[in-house]
Amino acid sequence: MAGFRRFSVPEYHRLTEIGVLTENDDLELIEGYLVLKMARNPPHDCAIQLVSDAFNSVNPGGWCVRVQCAITLPDSEPEPDVAMARGTARNYASHHPGPGGIGTLVEVADSTLLGDRADKGRIYARANVPIYWIVNLPDRQIEVYEQPSGPTTAPAYAKTTTYRAADAIPLVLDGVTVTTFPVQDLLP
After folding, report:
1. What pLDDT shows up at residue 4?
2. CB atoms within 10 A of CB 169
3. I need a labelling partner for 11 at 20 to 30 A (CA). Which of 33, 128, 169, 183 fits?
4. What secondary structure does DSSP assign to 53-79, as a single string?
5. pTM for the full model?
6. Number of neighbours of residue 30 by Cβ within 10 angstroms
7. Distant-in-sequence, close-in-space partners of 34: CB < 8 Å, separation ≥ 6
8. Burial class of 5 by CB neighbour count within 10 A (0 to 12, 13 to 18, 19+)
9. Can you give the pLDDT at residue 3?
10. Is the CB of residue 41 less than 8 Å from the CB of residue 21?
């Protein structure tokens, strides 16, 4: 992007430390660019709450549910809607989890669907986030992306499974299915 400056993750952190960027700015760092987060609507917020409640209801030991909290990737610091992170909330008092600390990551998508598939999918695959869900509100389904490529010239997930409202979706952490949820219970 000509005329736009890219920021490193440490530069982004410094901008928040010195108060140039605040929590009121509604920005996240995506591939070095400061990107405005979209406004949320009631179905979006409802889906976030349904997924986080479901994850909390079965949360095995050694994991915590993070809602709209940042994760630190090599060139990005997105704020996924829900993430299962290794450890407890206190483990992240001084830093955000990195990709090795994420079990399953969730974005709820309505107007952001294409960007969540392409842009967020690319950065999560590049960073080796093992499992990435998109709660696809327009199509009333959940898309699950697995087998990330890692840092390649065209990062992507090798496996995609679509779960419709009548299906059950597995919650997988460290390669183990913890439980399954009826998809309809995760959709507003």
Report:
1. 75
2. 22
3. 128
4. HHHHHH--TTEEEEES-----SS-B--
5. 0.91
6. 19
7. 7, 12, 21, 27, 28
8. exposed
9. 67
10. no
- The CA R_g of the chain, rounded to the nearest whole Å, is 16
Question: What would the mean pLDDT of 73-101 be, rounded to a whole number?
Answer: 95
Q: Which helix (H) or strand (E) holds 37?
A: none
Contacts of 138 (CB under 8 A, 6+ apart): 109, 110, 113
The reported pLDDT for the residue numbered 36 is 81
The total of other beta-carbon atoms located within 10 Å of residue 121's CB is 22
Assign residue 65 a region: left if phi > 0, alpha if psi is -120 to 50, beta otherwise? beta
Q: What is the mean pLDDT of the chain?
A: 93
Residue type for position 118 = A
> How far apart, in whole angstroms, are the C-alpha atoms of residue 124 and residue 136?
17
The kind and range of the H/E element at 4 are none
Scanning the structure block, which residue is given the tokens 């405005």? 36
| Cβ pair 66, 106 in contact under 8 A | no
Sequence-distant (≥ 6) Cβ neighbours of residue 49 within 8 angstroms: none
149-178 residue pLDDT tens: 999 999 999 999 999 999 999 999 999 999
